[in-house]
Amino acid sequence: MAKIRRNRNHTASRLFTDREEFQQTFWNGVHAHLETPIEERLHRVLVFYGVGGIGKTSLQRELTKQLLNARKPTLHARIDFGNLGGISKAKTLITLAHSFKENHQVSFPHFEISYSLYFAKKNPDLTLKNQEIPYLKDIGFVGNLLAAVDGLGFLGALSGVVERAYGMVKRFNLNSELKEDLKRLERLSPDEIEDEMASFFAYDLEYACERDQSVSIIFVDTYEVLWNKTYWNNDVYPDKFMRDIVELMPFALFVVSSREKLKWQSLSMQWQGVLDQHLLGNLSRKDAKGFLRSCGIHDEKTQDRIYISSNGHPFHMDLCVDQYHEMLNKGIAVEAHRFTAVNSEILERFLMHLDHREVEILKLMSIPRWYDAELFEELAAAFMGSRIRNHFEGIQRFSFVENEGNRFFFHALMRENLSHQVEDGSLLKAHGIIFEYYMKRLGRCALASPHDYIESLLSECCYHFKAYAGRSKNWDWLDSEEFIRILQLLQVKGSTNFLISLIADMHACCDNVLNIRIRYILMDMFHLQGNYEDAVKQIGDALKEDHADDVNLQLEIRRLHHQMFYLPVEGIIKEAKRLVANLDGTRYAQHFRELLFMIGGNLGILNGNFDDSRKWLLQAIRQSKKAEDVALLARCLRKYVDMLRRTGHTKFATHACRLGLKLAREEGLRRYEIYLLCTEADLMRETGKLKEAQETIDLALKYAVEQQITGWMGHCYLVLAELAIDTKNDGAEARRFFAEAMGIYEQINQVWGVIQARLGMERVAFMMEEHFLPLRLTAIRDLASNFGYRYETAYINNTLSNGYFGIYRYAFL
Predict the structure, then answer these.
(1) N or C: fewer beta carbons within 10 Å in the chain?
(2) CA dist 608 → 1, 571, 648 (Å)
(3) Three-state secondary-structure class, residue 769
C-alpha cells in the first residue's frame, strides 16, 4: 500500500495512510532507547501482527522511510523471511549485516571473519573466483584480503586469516581481545561456528552504536514463515535462533511483523515484559478515503464503493486501485458500480480490465513460489511462445509484485487466488516444466557449488516434483541416480538438518516408499548428529520391510556400528559373532569382511580382549588384501596399530601406521588418512617426537574440520591436550583442549569419548595439584566397566592402586 508503482500511462501514487497509533508506539520505543545509556538498555521487541495483506509490510517500510528522514542517531536494517530464499542463523545475520552496511555503512569486521570461516568450511571445494563467490562483497575486508588470491580453494585461502587480519589491525579496526576467540573458530565445525557468530555480530553492532551514540533498529518481516519451515530439528523450536539473536542485543530495538502473536513468554520467563504486541486491523472509512485520494481517486461515490467492496482491507484496496488505473489506460469509463463486489469478486473484476494475454501470464507466474527472468522465459516458451517475453517488466508494475534482488514474488493472497484459477492440465504441465528447469540447474551443481545454492534449487525442485508426480503417484525420480547424487553432494557438505527434513518430507509424500540408498543417507545424517539411537530406529523400521538379503545384512551391520557408540560393547560383539557364524562368506564376501573387521577392530580393541581381537583382525586384513578392498584395508591397518600399541609393540605399530597412511594417500582416502594421522600423532607423542606430533595433529584437525567429521575433531583435541602437557607442561591449556573434546563427545553422545575426556581432566588435576580424587576416578572406572572397556578399567585400577598415572595410549573409536 505505501509505495509508488509505475504504470503505462496513469500512475497510482500511494501514500501511507493511518496507523498513527502504531507509528507513535514505534517512536516511543526509539526515544526510550536513545534516552537510555547503551549498557542500561533492556530487551524490547515491538510486534505488529494481523492477517495477510493487512499492511504489516507497508507499516515497516513507512517506519524505515521515517527513520531516514528524521535525522535521529539511528541505525536500521531489515530482513524479510518471506523472500529470504533459505533460512538459517548464518543467512539471517549476513543479510542483516549487508542491510546495515547498505543503509549506514556499518562495518562488521569480527563477524565477517566468523562468517567467512563458516562458509569456507561449508564449501571446502569452492575455488576463489568472483563469479563463483558473489558474496565476496558482503564479507567486507575479508573479501578484499581474498580477492587477490586466485586459483586456491576458498578454505585454503582462508588459512590463517585471523593472523593476517590482525596483522593489519589498525586498518580494519579489530579488537585484540577477540583474537583468540576468532582463532578458536578455525578449529570448529561449521555448525559450531554458526552457533557462535551471532556474538561477533552483536559486538560489532554494539560498537557502532557506542561510537555514534545511536540506537540500532532491526525490522523482521513475515516472521510466521519460520514456523512453516520443516527442516529444523524436531526437538528445537524453529524460531529459537531468532530468540538467541535478540537475547544477545538488549541495546537494539526489534520490530517484528507476523500473522500471529508471538508466544515467547510461554517458553521462558525471561521474555516477560519484553514483547509489546499490537493487532493491525482494516482501515477506517476516513483513512481509506485518504489513501484513495492519494492514488488519484477523488470521486466520493467510487471511494465509497471501493471501501464497501474491500471492507477497508489494504490488499484488496490496492487491487481496486490497480483496476481503476487499468480502466483509465484502456479508455473505459470509470463508474462506481464497477467496484461493487465482495472480497472474493475483487480479483475477478481486476482481471476483467487486463489484456487476456496478461491475465494468462499472471496466472502462469503464480505457480512457482518465486521466479526470475530465466524461469519466466522457460514458462513463456512452453505456454505462449516468444510473444510474452516482453511482458516480464510489464507485470512488475502491479502492487502485489515484490522483488528481492533478481527474484520476484507475488503477494501470498494474490498467488493463492490466481493459482486456483489455473486449469488442472495447465497446472500439472507447469509444475512439470519448472521441475525439469530446476533439475537442469541441479545437474550443473558439483562439489564446488555453495551448499545454500544447492539447497535452494533442491527445495524448489522437490516442491514442484511433489505437485507434478503426486497426481500420478509416479515417484521414480526419487530412485534416480541424479536425485541421489544431489543428496550425496549435500551429505558431503554437512547439510544435516536440511537433508533430514527433506528426506522425511519426501518419505511422507510418496506413501512411505524410499530408495534404501536414500535411507542410508538419512541414517548417516543421524549418525553425524550423534543421534545414534535415531539411526538405529531407522534401521529397525527398514528391517521390518521386504528387502533383499544383502540389504538386510547391510542394515544389521550398520545397526551394530551405530550401537557401539552408546551401548555396552560385549553384547554387540556377541551379536556380530552370531551374524558372521551364519553368513556365507563367499556369497556375501563384502559383508563378511566388514564383520571380521568390526569384531577384531572396532569392537575387539574397544573391549580390550587383544588376543581375540588379533585373530579376527588378521583375518580381515588377509581378506581385504585378497579382494583388493583398499578402503577396508586402510581401516584394518589403523586398528592393528591400536592393538600393537596397547600390547607394547610400538616399533611394529609405527611401521603399520606408515603403511596405512601411504595406502590412504595413494588412493585419495582422505577420511581414513585423518584417522591414521591422528593415530600417528599420538604414536609420535608416545615416542617423544613432540614437534612432529604437533605438526601431524594440526594437519589431522584441519582435515577433520574440512570433512566435518565431528568425532575425530574430538579425538584430535585429546592429542592436543596431551601435547600441551608433554611439550609445555601447560595444564591450563590441556584442560581447555579436554573441555573442547568433552563438549563434542557429549553433543554426539559418544560414551568412549566422554570417558577419555574425563580421564584426561583427572590427569591434568593430578599434574597441577599433585593429587587425585579416588571417588571421581572410581565413577569413571565404573562407567568404563559397565560398557566393557577393559583397557580403561584396568588403567584406572592401576592408578588407584599405585597412586600415580602411567603412560596412556589412545585407541580412537
Answers:
(1) C
(2) 73, 14, 13
(3) helix
In whole angstroms, what is the distance from residue 633 CA to residue 629 CA?
6
Round to whole Å and give the CA distance between 813 and 800. 25
pLDDT above 70 for 96: yes
Model's pTM, two decimal places? 0.56
**C-beta of residue 655 within 8 angstroms of C-beta of residue 788:** no
Greater model confidence, 189 or 368:
368
509 within 8 A of 466, measured Cβ to Cβ: yes
- Amino acid residing at 550: D
Q: What is the pLDDT of residues 254-263, one digit of tens each?
A: 999 887 778 7
- For 398, list phi and psi in degrees, rounded to 5: -80, 150
Average pLDDT over residues 286-312: 75
Return d(Cα 486, Cα 495) in angstroms, integer.
11
Q: Name the pLDDT band for 15 (thresholds 50, 70, 90).
A: very low
Phi, psi dihedral angles at 411 (to 5 degrees) = -55, 140
Element (H, E) at 35: none
Rounded Cα distance between 285 and 504, Å, is: 49
What is the pLDDT, as a whole number, of residue 399? 63
Which amino acid, 313?
A: H
Q: Are strands 275-279 and 44-49 parallel, antiparallel or unpaired?
A: parallel
- Predicted confidence at residue 352, as pLDDT, reads 61
Kindly report, residue by residue over 322-339, the tens digit of the pLDDT.
777 777 776 676 666 666
Strand 407-410 to 401-404 pairing: antiparallel
Question: How confident is the model at residue 529, as a pLDDT?
Answer: 65
Burial (CB < 10 A; 0-12, 13-18, 19+), residue 329, is: middle
State the angle between helix axes of 89-104 and 190-212 in degrees (0 to 180), rounded to the nearest 10.
Answer: 30
Taking only the tens place, the pLDDT of each residue in 265-281 is 777 778 888 888 887 76
Which pLDDT does position 351 carry in this prediction?
67
Residue corresponding to grid cell 590427569? 763
- Report the alpha-carbon distance of residue 792 to residue 777 in Å, rounded: 11
646 to each of 8, 711, 792, how far by Cα in Å?
83, 21, 11
Residue 677 has pLDDT above 90, yes or no: yes
Report whether 295 contacts 13 (CB < 8 A): yes
Write down the residue that cell numbers 551443481 correspond to: 445
Q: Say if residues 262 and 223 touch (Cβ distance below 8 Å).
A: yes
In the three-class reduction of DSSP (H, G, I as helix; E, B as strand; rest coil), residue 186 is classed as: coil
First to last CA, the chain: 61
Q: Say which residue the cell 596397547 belongs to.
A: 646
pLDDT digits (tens, 9 = 90+) for 559-604: 998 888 888 888 999 999 999 998 888 899 989 999 999 999 888 8
Pick from 641, 698, 642, 711: nearest CA to 671:
711
Cα 775 from Cα 361, distance rounded (Å): 76
Beta strands in 126-269 (DSSP E): 215-221, 252-258
Q: What contacts 569, CB < 8 A, 6 or more positions away?
A: 603, 606, 607, 787, 788, 789
Task: Let me know: does 36 contact 253? Beta carbons within 8 Å.
Answer: no
What's the confidence (pLDDT) of residue 447? 67
Q: What is the DSSP letter of 445?
A: -
How far apart, in whole angstroms, are the C-alpha atoms of residue 207 and residue 40? 15
Buried b (16+ CB within 10 A) or exposed e, 722-753: bbbbbeeebbebbbbbbebbbebbeebebbbb
648: left (phi over 0), alpha (psi -120 to 50) or beta: left
User: Rounded CA gap, 614 and 317, in Å?
Assistant: 80
Residue positions counted in the chain:
813
Residues 655-673 pLDDT 10s: 999 999 998 888 777 778 8
pLDDT given for residue 229 in this prediction = 46
Question: By three-state DSSP, how is residue 166 classified?
Answer: helix
578-586 CB contacts, 8 Å cutoff, 24+ apart: 579/553, 583/553
